[in-house]
Amino acid sequence: MNKHDYLLVEFYAPWCGHCKALAPEYAKAAKRLRENNPPYYLAKLDATEHKAQAEKHGIRGFPTLFFFKNGVKMEYNGGRTENEIVNWILKKVGPASSEVSCEGLKEKTAQSKLVAAFFGDSASSKEHATFLEVASNGQVSEKFTFVHIFDKECASSHGASQPAFLVFRQFDTSPVTYNGPHEAAAIVDWMQAQSVPTVIEFSEDYIEPIFGQKQAAIFLFRSSSDASSDFSKHFETAAHQLKGKILFVTSGVTDGIQARLGEFIGVDAS
Q: Is the confidence at residue 131, as pLDDT, over 90?
């Protein structure tokens, strides 16, 4: 902490299941942040070995994460995936949105699952001000990487005219262009709908979007051989028609987090 102005610290216990689930995402986030310019760092502390430090920081459960900014401690309230951790920290240490070149946009979209991009002709426009308001909104600020580009040719290359607001994602159709009123609340609602696939295959990444936001969701429990069935096709058609209103989720019941979901709800292979 004396060495780094910014440091995220995870207090963990070796036996903790949630800590084990977090570990690979935390490691990937650490690698990304180390390669950032400037680099930032993550740390982890075994609270069962270093009990005095755990008591000093009031650790009551695992994992507990705190962010230290110039030695001042604040609670980490971001997500548990690589992208969410990286985006949360970058928001705490820098501006809500960063200006990039067209090549820089390409790099960002390769690194991040969700990128919100504003194509504008002026940093002083009301549209850019609205975009920055959206970028600071806690509902979306940790899910998305926000960038702005003042390059007409770059906008044209993505089928957009200035000003335009696009979401780039590593699933479904990408990019998607916002066509609604240029109001922060409407844009945030639209982004929430664009942040998940039209049909979600249930995994750790989607626990928070489904359950944390108390979204209406319909689950189709099926085996891998059912994926091409007529019912699955009808399910996908309905998902497109009701996108933004109901989340459509598929899951098996035999492996990993999907098995735990099936057990929790009371669905088994039979």
A: yes
